[in-house]
């Protein structure tokens, strides 16, 4: 039996009793335990370090619950204490910049708003390691045939680094297939849009070219422990279909490599294995995944999910275009071309077959009369401009061409910005 369930965070799992059934069921929370969730990785980067605190929430819920107003600090065996303050996004950020240094023990200390105290085990910085190469390649054989894979090489023959976790942030450039330097404003609106005037004005911002950025959400790990050498060779970080619009213009990926100790590696691996399992309803129940953060009161029944990881980190960024990996330019993800059956002899009115690209006549305001009835293109024109953020392309009274945001406004895409990132290279 395959059960579909919502995945909340790398540290949050809900386990259930076994069922014998042959069809999918809707899972609901029957017994709920309010558990603190800790996500904390201290690195050797000189920066404001971050700790995320949240709570488990109901399976049928749609958002996580932030643990507010906690007292958070990190102490080390050098006698230093680094205090954290909560920001507007529910993340606890160190008040000062600092970095983890070798041969020093670090401990995370948390006191929640209800007075409960939690400490991590003391942890040291892992060995240093570097990403030697990061490169894209078109894979032509195997399960990833006709896909672009971003590979990583890292030689650790001179270090003790053996366990690795990866994160990436990817940014791609997007250019609208249609764009106008002008916009349409509606004025003199009568009776909710039954009549109105359109004024064509210059655009106030760039909506033609944007940059869309997203971060990895899955756990990516590898180890050299079982290899004959301590070399990571051609490890796949990211796999992209060759027709994916990510590669249509220009693409960049920044990969971070975290060196983990064995305990941290195992913790993340167990969680990743559980999240990838097709069914958590197995005869062998995994139980509670124990990390290195625990209540100070040893007799407390309160449990905590999460791990305080102290990792050395290195990073590398690359840029490439579709022709750099010997593929054709991927298609734009939406159909933006004008389509009509102008030559339909049964109707004197051109019909817009593609809702993304419309040519509408203000004078066609609907009505009866001999078949076929007059379409209400005036009402459509008002609705698309006033309520659906369609963009003006061209035209003057009474005929206007307008396009959906997906074809004309790059700022309408999630995680997009029309400001070029400082790191960007064309």
Account of the protein in words:
This protein is mainly beta and 426 residues long. Among the domains are: 133-175 and 212-255, no CATH class; 182-210 and 331-417, no CATH class. It contains three helices and 26 strands. The protein has helices at 262-276, 377-386, 405-408; strands at 36-43, 50-55, 65-66, 71-76, 81-86, 91-94, 105-111, 117-120, 123-124, 133-139, 147-155, 163-175, 182-190, 195-202, 209-215, 220-223, 231-241, 251-260, 293-295, 304-320, 357-361, 365-367, 374-376, 391-396, 399-403, 416-417. It has a 16-stranded mixed sheet that branches. Strand 5 (81-86) and strand 6 (91-94) form a beta hairpin. It is elongated. 25% of the residues are buried. Mean pLDDT is 88; it is low at 1-32 and 278-286.
The count of β-strands is 26
Unreliable stretches (pLDDT < 50, length at least 5) are 1-32, 278-286
Helix content: under 10%
Main sheet characteristics: 16 strands, mixed
Average pLDDT for all residues: 88
Order of helices and strands: EEEEEEEEEEEEEEEEEEHEEEEEHEEHE
Offer a few descriptive terms.
single chain, elongated, mainly beta
How do you describe this structure in short?
This protein has 426 residues and is mainly beta.
């Amino acid at each position: 039996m395959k059960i579909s369930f919502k995945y909340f965070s790398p540290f949050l799992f809900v386990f259930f009793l076994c069922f014998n059934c042959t069809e999918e069921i809707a899972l609901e929370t029957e017994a709920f335990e309010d558990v603190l969730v800790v996500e904390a990785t201290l690195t050797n980067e000189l920066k404001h370090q971050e700790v995320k605190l949240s709570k488990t929430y109901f399976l049928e819920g749609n958002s996580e619950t932030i643990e507010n107003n906690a007292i958070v600090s990190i102490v080390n065996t050098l006698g230093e204490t680094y205090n954290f303050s909560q920001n507007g996004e529910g993340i606890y950020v160190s008040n000062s910049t600092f970095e983890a240094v070798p041969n020093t023990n670090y401990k995370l200390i948390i006191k929640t708003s209800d007075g409960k105290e939690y400490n991590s085990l003391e942890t040291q910085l892992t060995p240093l390691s570097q990403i030697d190469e990061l490169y894209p390649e078109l894979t032509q054989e195997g399960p990833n045939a006709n896909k672009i894979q971003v590979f990583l090489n890292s030689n650790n023959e001179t270090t003790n680094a053996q366990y690795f976790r990866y994160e990436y942030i990817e940014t791609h450039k997007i250019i609208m297939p249609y764009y106008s330097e002008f916009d349409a404003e509606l004025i003199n609106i009568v009776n909710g849009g039954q009549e109105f005037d359109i004024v064509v004005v210059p655009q106030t911002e760039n909506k033609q070219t944007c940059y869309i950025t997203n971060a990895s959400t899955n756990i990516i790990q590898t180890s050299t422990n079982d290899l004959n050498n301590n070399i990571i060779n051609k490890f796949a970080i990211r796999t992209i279909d060759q027709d994916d619009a990510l590669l249509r213009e220009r693409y960049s990926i920044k990969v971070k490599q975290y060196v983990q100790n064995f305990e941290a590696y195992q913790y993340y691996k167990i969680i990743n294995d559980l999240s990838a399992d097709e069914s958590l309803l197995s005869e062998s129940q995994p139980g509670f995944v124990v990390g290195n953060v625990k209540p100070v009161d040893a007799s407390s029944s309160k449990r905590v999910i999460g791990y305080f990881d102290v990792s050395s980190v290195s990073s590398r960024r690359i840029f490439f275009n579709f022709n750099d990996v010997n593929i054709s330019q991927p298609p734009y993800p939406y159909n933006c071309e004008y389509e009509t059956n102008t030559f339909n002899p049964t109707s004197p009115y051109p019909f817009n077959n593609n809702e993304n690209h419309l040519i509408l006549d203000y004078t066609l305001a609907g009505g009866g009369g001999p078949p076929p009835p007059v379409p209400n293109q005036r009402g459509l024109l008002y609705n698309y401009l006033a309520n659906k953020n369609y963009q003006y392309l061209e035209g003057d009274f009474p005929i206007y061409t307008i396009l959906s945001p997906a074809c004309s406004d790059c700022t309408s895409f999630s995680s997009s910005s029309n400001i070029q990132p400082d790191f960007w290279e064309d």
